[in-house]
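Much of our argument rests on the idea that a fold can be written as discrete symbols. The amino acid sequence and the backbone structure tokens for this protein are reproduced below:

___
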Amino acid sequence: MAIDVAPYDPAWPSQFLRVKAALADALAEVPVHSIEHVGSTSVPGLAAKPILDIDIVVERSAVPAAIAALESVGYAHRGDLGVTDREAFEAPDAGPRRHVYVCVDGTLHLRNHLAVRRVLRENAGLRDRYAAVKLDLASDPAMDIDAYLAGKSAVLQDVLALSDLTPDEKERILRLNTGS
């Protein structure tokens, strides 16, 4: 199955802000730390799969309330999908396409998302190299998502080398990305 990677779309930030406002309304009774636009669509100039990634950051104790609030406005809870302390949701509509997650504050996967976003926003050379790798992988019509994720791991390790994650955390992320 082919992977769709598109050139950067300057509409992505405004799409995020629209979704963020709707999520904030739905979560009005939940103590939310932040709603973060993460993933490649959050980095100006970066080619990306045209799907917004959104992390809703809460304390562990607020996760059940956040799940209930999102379900009440039509989001389908999909469980943690194998990632502890991250609950995934399917959006009730496709405008825009998005992955929404409730994330426990301070966890490695959340810190990873924020670190990658920061480094790629600050380092145009790495951003462009990452885009080139993604576009090259996506040009293979036989590419599947697992091979795509593994194919990006080397450049992501270079991105993470500039982050504040510990060496052990970087190694754990590498193992997750490569399935080893």
User: Anything to note?
Assistant: The longest strand covers residues 32-38. The chain has six helices and five strands. Strands lie at 32-38, 52-58, 76-79, 86-90, 98-104. The radius of gyration is 16 Å.
